[in-house]
């Protein structure tokens, strides 16, 4: 009986010991799971809440004109203020190089592509590369034709042409007009042309205005403008007005006019409000320029970037067919600037300072 009693007591102790061991194993296991796995769950939760930093690829077709430096610098600065990173490239007016540069931007894992096409048709291949990667594409200031761009953002280039024409009409309601167009690969040129023809065609049809020359200046080179004007003057043609599509072309035209002592006597338009153009306006050798507030264009672009990243719908006033589809289009109105309002526009907006514009040499 004593043996049986001791045996039962031993079994009871053994069971308690096993229970304690199992309890200890449970708590140790739970502690290991908590230590090694809970931070991973927490990190995953943090990754969902905290989004990856957005990287913008900015593919520029050129930096030849003064204005493009402003676009680049303002866009980078404002993007950084929003916490975005910007990787930018410049194709230097080379179509093949622009495609290669877009490949480079894609290799840098950009989230969105903002592209200024060097050529509105040849750039479609660059857009296709981005779209195959699922990257949204913004066509910035210049339209990319025949491509699956997500949005087109620009100044209203139809109105650019209209403003130039209206300023010339006020100054020269009848006479011989010269039209200096920009590069034919820039679709803005076609819109500018449509804009000024809308204003002037009735006067041309009535023979009040004679279109004595209307030609493209390839790559927006002022040398073309100089040669066109110089050749007409050498041929003895009278020029009463020059519609130059940007300030660089205006400079070329005015150089040729000045050699015949006609600078300031023949009204010349321009576009972009380059500092040299503003100086010519106050001096009296250039009639006007079309000022495009780049700050507003950049702000609008980054607002669109926000929406595209968040996959929010775009509510555009315009839909423009680019040959592939109807593209949501956002236009900002440009501003005609001459001697009478340059202080209240270009200088007031600090696009240029008073000292820069009214510099005396």
From TrEMBL:
Pfam families: Peripla_BP_4
InterPro entries in the cross-refs: Bact_Solute-Bind_Prot2, Peripla_BP_I, SBP_2_dom
Gene Ontology molecular function: carbohydrate binding
Residue ranges crossing the lipid bilayer per the database entry: 18-38
Main subcellular localisation: other
Positions of the Periplasmic binding protein domain: 56-312
Keywords in alphabetical order: Membrane, Signal, Transmembrane, Transmembrane helix
SUPFAM superfamilies: Periplasmic binding protein-like I
An annotated GO cellular component: outer membrane-bounded periplasmic space
Subcellular location(s) per record: Cell envelope
Entry-linked PANTHER family: D-XYLOSE-BINDING PERIPLASMIC PROTEIN
Protein's name in the database: Monosaccharide-transporting ATPase
């Amino acid at each position: 009986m004593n043996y049986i009693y001791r045996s039962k007591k031993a079994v009871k102790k053994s069971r308690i010991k096993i229970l304690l061991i199992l309890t200890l194993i449970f708590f140790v296991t739970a502690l290991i799971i908590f230590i090694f796995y809970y931070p991973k769950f927490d990190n995953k939760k943090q990754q969902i809440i905290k989004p990856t930093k957005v990287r913008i690829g900015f593919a520029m077709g050129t930096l030849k004109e003064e204005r493009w430096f402003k676009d680049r610098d303002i866009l980078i600065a404002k993007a950084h203020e929003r916490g975005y990173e910007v990787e930018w490239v410049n194709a230097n007016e080379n179509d093949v190089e622009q495609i290669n540069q877009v490949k480079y931007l894609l290799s840098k894992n950009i989230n969105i592509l903002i592209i200024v096409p060097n050529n509105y048709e040849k750039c479609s291949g660059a857009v296709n590369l981005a779209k195959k990667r699922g990257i949204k594409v913004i066509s910035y200031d210049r339209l990319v034709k025949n491509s699956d761009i997500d949005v087109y953002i620009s100044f209203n280039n139809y109105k650019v042409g209209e403003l130039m024409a209206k300023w010339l009409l006020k100054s020269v309601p009848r006479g011989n007009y010269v039209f200096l167009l920009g590069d034919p690969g820039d679709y803005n040129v076609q819109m500018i042309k449509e804009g000024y023809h809308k204003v002037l065609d009735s006067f041309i049809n009535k023979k009040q205005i004679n279109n004595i020359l209307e030609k493209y200046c390839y790559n927006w080179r002022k040398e073309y403008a100089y040669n066109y004007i110089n050749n007409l003057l050498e041929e003895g043609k009278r020029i009463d007005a020059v519609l130059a599509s940007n300030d660089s072309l205006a400079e070329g035209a005015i150089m040729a006019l000045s050699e015949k002592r006609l600078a300031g006597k023949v009204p010349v338009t321009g576009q972009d409000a380059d500092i040299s153009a503003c100086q010519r306006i106050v001096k009296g050798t250039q009639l006007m320029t079309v000022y495009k507030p780049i700050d507003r264009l950049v702000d609008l672009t980054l607002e669109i970037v926000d929406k595209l990243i968040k996959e929010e719908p775009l509510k555009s006033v315009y839909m423009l067919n680019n040959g592939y589809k109807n593209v949501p289009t956002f236009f900002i109105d440009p501003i005609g600037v001459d001697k009478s309002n340059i202080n209240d526009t270009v200088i007031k907006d600090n696009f240029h300072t008073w000292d820069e514009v009214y510099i005396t040499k």
